Amino acid sequence: VMLIILTVELNDVFAYIAGKTFGHRKITPQTSPNKTLGGALGALVLTTTLVSTVGHFVFAGSGVDTPVKLIGLGLIVSVAGQFGDLMVSSIKRDIGIKDMGASIPGHGGLLDRFDSMLLVAPAVFHYIGFFRGFGLDQPTRIFTGGG
């Protein structure tokens, strides 16, 4: 759980840094004018690398601990995170608000920090469940790894 929460947040940070460094071509100017192709691709590469590397230790000995599956997990986190962010940005633009609150100065409300999780959480749940199994007989042990 912590791996996914941290990497989703870092995905946003990576997109911001890569966008400022390499991004000139805007991909959704009407919905989210600061999102660039360079930011999206940079986040995709960096997040996938991070999830693959750290995921090897988190999921050690489980059915998810293969390079291909961990790369797949990283791609899911990055792509679903970016689409989740765009989805919430679109909804906010449609109803005419910028932030979902002001609890975090300069970053909007609490929901603005977790908008990417709306698509990531169910996608990752099903991806991991596909390889590890569902149900109470096979609990997912995120911190201890194991199968």
What multimeric state do the chains show? single chain
Beta strand count = 0
Whole-Å distance between the termini?
Answer: 16 Å
Question: How is the biggest beta sheet arranged?
Answer: none
Please give the radius of gyration in angstroms: 16 Å
Give the overall average pLDDT: 83
Basic shape: globular
Work out the helix count.
Answer: 5
Task: Provide the β-strand percentage band.
Answer: under 5%
Poorly predicted runs are: none
Count of discrete structural domains? 1
Order of helices and strands: HHHHH
Question: In percent, how helical is the residue content?
Answer: 55-70%
Structural class: mainly alpha
Key terms:
single chain, 147 residues, mainly alpha
Write the layout of secondary structure elements.
Blueprint: H1 2-22, H2 37-58, H3 67-95, H4 110-114, H5 117-132
Describe the 3D structure.
It is a single chain. The chain is mainly alpha-helical. It has one domain (2-132). 63% of the residues lie in helices and 0% in strands. The protein is built from five helices and no strands. It has helices at residues 2-22, 37-58, 67-95, 110-114, 117-132. Helix 2 crosses helix 3. It is globular and about 45 Å long. The two termini are 16 Å apart. 30% of the residues are buried. The model has no long low-confidence stretch (mean pLDDT 83).
